[in-house]
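re: the backbone from monday

yeah here it is again, tokenized this time
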């Protein structure tokens, strides 16, 4: 019985090492992608419209509405009396 437990623990350890390698490779790929992105522009957040929408101001003075993807929030604020 002890041999079976030791064998199972060893197998879990091996599988965990394989998953760690995959995670590290994914992180390295994400870092390379971030370094390659050169079309970034600094903006200033002018105001927050709701939980996933903001108004941003570009250095040129132009304002634009930006919606954040994959954010689960209410669409509007309802003021309770």
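seq for it, each position gets an aa:
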């Amino acid at each position: 019985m002890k041999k079976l437990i030791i064998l199972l623990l060893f197998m879990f350890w091996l599988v965990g090492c394989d998953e760690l390698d995959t995670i590290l490779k994914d992180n390295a790929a994400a870092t390379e992608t971030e370094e390659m992105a050169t079309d970034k522009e600094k903006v200033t957040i002018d105001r927050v419209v709701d939980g996933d929408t903001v108004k941003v101001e570009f250095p040129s003075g132009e304002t634009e509405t930006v919606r954040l993807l994959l954010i689960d929030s209410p669409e509007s604020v309802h003021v309770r009396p």
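The two ends are 67 Å apart (CA to CA). The longest helix spans residues 2-36.
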